[in-house]
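fyi for ur records
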Amino acid sequence: MKKAIHPTYYPDAKATCVCGASFAVGSTQKEMHLEICSQCHPFYTGNAKMMDTAGRVEKFKARKAAAAPKKGK
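which gave:
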């Protein structure tokens, strides 16, 4: 490694989230302020909203069938 070109690495940098959680991480910044962390993220807390994609597929198929030309006798 070349000398004096790399930033200082802080193995005990402090990361603080807006939810109030703070923990130590390794970073090139001494302190970090986060908007979201694993303690308040909906995916990790179990509050994630699941989208109903099945309803969307049925709507698309219905519109496609309605737009298809009708066969005459």
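The longest helix spans residues 53-67. thats all i got for now
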